[in-house]
Each structure stands twice: as structure tokens, then as C-alpha cells.
Inverse folding.
């Protein structure tokens, strides 16, 4: 049997802006989906050859391997400050940082808030999986009340360590940011919504509109000790109750 | 040469940075270097360049990392406690081979200390400060005009070797006013293009700025490359000044503002018939061990004088070994030794 390839239409392929490097992420983790979305957006906006990505410390420490763009690997928590330095040095570049919850909402608290407050014309992707994945599943600033981690073995106790921090809501109290939104990736509809949000966050920067933050609720099946299916269900039914989805600011 | 100006040390460092083509400056206010920040705030935006008062010293040095990685000349400045905060970023800059200039207008320590002049950060500047096996080029200006010259040089060396360069000044130098003649400004557009910088991967493979390698042998190779670079710098970039050492029986070793004060001490001592010379390191790293070693073979005593409890003194003793006596005289806490007190120390060691 022979197949005539001339009559076939390619409906799915690897984004041009992604490399062929093998992912280091665990099965069922949402980092892979998110990486692909960003790759597609870079393709659609045709900006890969003037983009600089910022790889943080954490599970996405190797982010500089996934994209065919210039990258800087930076100290834990400092991505928004480094992004500021790059963007101010070369405003013609498109600069995005990719930061986890420990990076963005704990050790980088000052850098994250002040880059937003200056209204830096950058795009921040904030991955909130409520745990420290890379170091073995320790408590994050976003860990849910009662959630067991290796450093909250009896569950997060708010009387001792406070409540999960809604960092995007804090950023949304500022006057300078242009776009602040929280998205999720647990089903197709939400992947499509998140894609739209991420595209908008990059488009804002292309248009010189200022600071855009996309928080993405993500899974960590390995450290949550759940299957990928259970993990998606957990985000949909439990995590979104603490971290509601939707736009917090849209001044674009 | 350009115009003649009357400026404070802090202002001269700022103005020299502008003339060296510094396009991005990031810093946080701290005494006694506030005039540097203020000069940049006034002048950088006027020239279409970047001035940001950062939210912290950590953020400022991280912004320097980003701008340096994007291939422009960039600088931050601070004073002792602020420089301690910058150590994280300095280690990353060194590991990622990024050129930049860091100014430390040193004040009394440890802790909050005070705002008086000091040389108590010599160890931090020359022996590491942050984590990992790395070095900075460290330049120690002794006068306001030299602060300008060394700032211009710092940007050249930083680019040439892809290394962070520190200007180790002190509160006295920062506040002192002197006439200076600074060279004409360099047009940043005329500087060589940095092919390794993250400027957008148009028509080339992506560039990556990083200080990260999981493979131990790979990281060892990166360290070997750094050490080879440091060796080259040591061979090519030693700078020091000798004053009246030819017939000296005793030599004072001093750097920065104290180096300048000790020049007066040499004159005073010579007027009394005491054969004193001065050895003043200008590069504190690389330290001029060999020239000082050679000198120590001809003298009885090398007296170290510092505004510290004896930090450069360790390098002096390494250089001199047992070839001459190596006494120390220092003041701490922001107390500045006077020419008279130094001369009295000299006399203790003259036969």
C-alpha cells in the first residue's frame, strides 16, 4: 500500500521555536504543556529571533535548552530584576521570565513586586504548583492549608506558617501592571484559555503596553504523590478554590 | 583630553563611568556613596541611558547581570553593607564571564558599622566574598583623579577579559574634592560588538548566559578556564607604584587613600633624614607579589599601614616571606591614621 504524501495536510507539529532537546520534566507535569504553548506563541507572533528567555532555579532550570532563543540562566528569585536589566539595555528585545512559586513568590518577592510596580515592559510566566519540585517536595509559599510536603509532614499549619499567598492578587493591587491573570492547564478548554492569555501577555510587550503576568496553576504528580489524572482533578476541584482562575487586571 | 572639573571622588567615578560608555547603572542609596548615585540620576536619563534606583542591592546587581548579558557596559555602586548583599550576583557574574564594574566606597564595619572611611573590605574584595572559586580584578585608587582613570580602565579590563571589576575606594576618597581632567566621552556605539551577548538569535545559533553545569567534569573545565583567565590577568595587568624605594631602608606598603597619606609620610621622613620608601599596590587583585618580593630583598622592613586590622598585610607577608621584617600599623572603625602617627610608627622600626 502506498500513501500519497502530497495530499496530506500537516495539522500538528513541534513549534519552530522549540529545540529537539529531550525534556527533563516528569510525566504528567504541566511544564511540558506550558513550554509548548510558549513555543507556539513565539511562532505565531514571529518574535523568536528577538526574544530573550530567562531560566530560573527550580525544575525549569534547564529552560534555556528548550527554546531556540537567546537565554540567561539567573540566580533564584532574581529573574524579574534580570529581565529589567535586559529590557532596559535593549528595549527592542522581547524579554520573558519563567518562574516557579518558590522563585517568584518567596525568595524573589521583592524583585517580583518591584518589577511589576515599575511597569517593566516584560512578560512574566509564573508557574504555581504549590510545591518545591526540584529539591524534593518541600513546602512552597503557595502550598495549600493541610497539604503534606516534606517540610510540612503533618500538613501546612497556618498557625505556624501562614496561608497560601495569592501573589497575583497582590500584584493586581498595583497601578502600573497592564495585564495580570491566572490560568490553568488541567483540560483542553483551559489549555486554550491559557494559550490566549499567554499570547496576549507577549502581544502587550510587542505593543509596548507594559508589564504582563500570567500565573499558571500547574501539577506536580511526583511530589504530590498522585497520578497525572488525579493531579488534574486536584487542580480543577481543589486548587482553583484557593487560587481562582481569570483576569485580575486587563488594562491592555 | 577633555575639560577640567572640580568634583568629589564619588562624582568623578560616576562621570568617568559615563565617559567610558556605561549605558545602564543600577543602585540603591547608601552613605557614603550617595553622590555617585545622584550624579547618575541627574545625567544618565539626559543622555538617553538607563538609571534605576533598584529596590535592593540584590536587585541592582541582578539588573547589572541582565544588562551585562545583553552586551552593554553597566555598573553598580554601593558601600560595605550593600556590597555584602551583592555577593550573590557577583558570584554569578564571575561564573557567567560577564563584564561589569562594581564600586565599593568602603565604610567602617562589621555589621552596620558606621559611615566613616575604612579599608575593612579588602578580604571580601580580593579573596572572594561570594561563593565559588572566582576572582574580581580589584583596583584601589588613591586620589580623585586616579579614581577617574581607574574607572575608565575598569570598563576596558572588564570587556577585555569578560570579568567583573571592582573599584575599592573608601569614604574619604568618595567625599574629597579635587580638580580632575577626564578624557573625552567614548561613544557606546563605537565599542566592539559582543558576539556572545543575548541580543536576539537572528541568523545565528542562540546565545546562552549561564553559570551552571551539572556534570562535575564539565564544571571543573569551566573552573579551569576561569583559573587560566586569572593567570593571564596576573601576568598582564599588575599595577603598582613605588616612591623613593631605590635607597630605602624601610618601605611602607599601603593602598588607596592611605597610600596617598603615606606619600606625605615619606616626604616628612626624608626631611628628617630617614630613608623611607612607599610601595603602593594599584591592582589589589592581582596583587603585585613579585615586585614586592624583589623590593623586600633590598630593605630591612616592610611596614603595612591600613585602615583595617591587617588585611592587605596578609598579602604583604606572603610576598615578603622572611626576607624582611613585616610589622603592621592600622586603625579601625573609621579612624584615619594621621601622617604624624604613621611617621611615629616608621621611627619605631628605624635602627
Amino acid at each position: 500500500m502506498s500513501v500519497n504524501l502530497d495530499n496530506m495536510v500537516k495539522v500538528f507539529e513541534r513549534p519552530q521555536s522549540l529545540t529537539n532537546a529531550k525534556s527533563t520534566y516528569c510525566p504528567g507535569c504541566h511544564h511540558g504543556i506550558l513550554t509548548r504553548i510558549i513555543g507556539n506563541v513565539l511562532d505565531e507572533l514571529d518574535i523568536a529571533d528577538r526574544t530573550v528567555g530567562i531560566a530560573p532555579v527550580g525544575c525549569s532550570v534547564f529552560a534555556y535548552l528548550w527554546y531556540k532563543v537567546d537565554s540567561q540562566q539567573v540566580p533564584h528569585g532574581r529573574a524579574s530584576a534580570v529581565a529589567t536589566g535586559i529590557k532596559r539595555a535593549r528595549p527592542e528585545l522581547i524579554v520573558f521570565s519563567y518562574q516557579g512559586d518558590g522563585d517568584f513568590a518567596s525568595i524573589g518577592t521583592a524583585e517580583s513586586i518591584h518589577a511589576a510596580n515599575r511597569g517593566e515592559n516584560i512578560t512574566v510566566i509564573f508557574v504555581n504548583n504549590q510545591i518545591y519540585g526540584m529539591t524534593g517536595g518541600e513546602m512552597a509559599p503557595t502550598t495549600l492549608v493541610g497539604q503534606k510536603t516534606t517540610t510540612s509532614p503533618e500538613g501546612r499549619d497556618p498557625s505556624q506558617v501562614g496561608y497560601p499567598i495569592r501573589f497575583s492578587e497582590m500584584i493586581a493591587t498595583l497601578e502600573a501592571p497592564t495585564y495580570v491573570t491566572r490560568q490553568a492547564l488541567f483540560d483542553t478548554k483551559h489549555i486554550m484559555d491559557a494559550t490566549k492569555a499567554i499570547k496576549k501577555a507577549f502581544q502587550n510587550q510587542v505593543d509596548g503596553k507594559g508589564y504582563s503576568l500570567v500565573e499558571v496553576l500547574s501539577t506536580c504528580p511526583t511530589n504530590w504523590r498522585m497520578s497525572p489524572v488525579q493531579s488534574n482533578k486536584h487542580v480543577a476541584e481543589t486548587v482553583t478554590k484557593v487560587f481562582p482562575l481569570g483576569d485580575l487586571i486587563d488594562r491592555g | 583630553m577633555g575639560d577640567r572639573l572640580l568634583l568629589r571622588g564619588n562624582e568623578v567615578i560616576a562621570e568617568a563611568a559615563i565617559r567610558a560608555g556605561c549605558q545602564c547603572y543600577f543602585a540603591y542609596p547608601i552613605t557614603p556613596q550617595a553622590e555617585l548615585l545622584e550624579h547618575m540620576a541627574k545625567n544618565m536619563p539626559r543622555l538617553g541611558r538607563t538609571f534605576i534606583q533598584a529596590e535592593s542591592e540584590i536587585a541592582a546587581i541582578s539588573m547589572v547581570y541582565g544588562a551585562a548579558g545583553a552586551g552593554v557596559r553597566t555598573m553598580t555602586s554601593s558601600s560595605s553593607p550593600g556590597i555584602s548583599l551583592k555577593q550573590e550576583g557577583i558570584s554569578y557574574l564571575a561564573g557567567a564571564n560577564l563584564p561589569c564594574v562594581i564600586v565599593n566606597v568602603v565604610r567602617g564595619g562589621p555589621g552596620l558599622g558606621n559611615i566613616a572611611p575604612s579599608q575593612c573590605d579588602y578580604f571580601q574584595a580580593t579573596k572572594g566574598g561570594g561563593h565559588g572559586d572566582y576572582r574580581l580584578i580589584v583596583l584601589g585608587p588613591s586620589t580623585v583623579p586616579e579614581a577617574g582613570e581607574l574607572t575608565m580602565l575598569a570598563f576596558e579590563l572588564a570587556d577585555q577579559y569578560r570579568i567583573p571589576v571592582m573599584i575599592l575606594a573608601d569614604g574619604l576618597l568618595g567625599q574629597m574634592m579635587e580638580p580632575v581632567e577626564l578624557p573625552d566621552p567614548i561613544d557606546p556605539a563605537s565599542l566592539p560588538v559582543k558576539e556572545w551577548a543575548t541580543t536576539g538569535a537572528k541568523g545565528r545559533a542562540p546565545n546562552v548566559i549561564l553559570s551552571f553545569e551539572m556534570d562535575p567534569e564539565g564544571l571543573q573545565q569551566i573552573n579551569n578556564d576561569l583559573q587560566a583567565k586569572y593567570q593571564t590577568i596576573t601576568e598582564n595587568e599588575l599595577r603598582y607604584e613605588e616612591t623613593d624605594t631605590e635607597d630605602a631602608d624601610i618601605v611602607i606598603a599601603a593602598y588607596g587613600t592611605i597610600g596617598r597619606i603615606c606619600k606625605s609620610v615619606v616626604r616628612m621622613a626624608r626631611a628628617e633624614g630617614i630613608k623611607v620608601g612607599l610601595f603602593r599596590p594599584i591592582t589589589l587583585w592581582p596583587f603585585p607579589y613579585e615586585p614586592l618580593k624583589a623590593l623586600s630583598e633590598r630593605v630591612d622592613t616592610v611596614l603595612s599601614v591600613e585602615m583595617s586590622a591587617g588585611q592587605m598585610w596578609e598579602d604583604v607577608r606572603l610576598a615578603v616571606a622572611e626576607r624582611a621584617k613585616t610589622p603592621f600599623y592600622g586603625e579601625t572603625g573609621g579612624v584615619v591614621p594621621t601622617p604624624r602617627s604613621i611617621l611615629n610608627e616608621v621611627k619605631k622600626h628605624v635602627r
User: Anything to note?
Assistant: Residues 4-201+223-236 of chain B form a domain with the Rossmann fold fold (CATH 3.40.50.970). Chain B has two domains: 4-201+223-236, 241-348. Chain B touches chain A through 40 residues (CB under 8 Å). DSSP finds 13 helices and 15 strands in chain B.
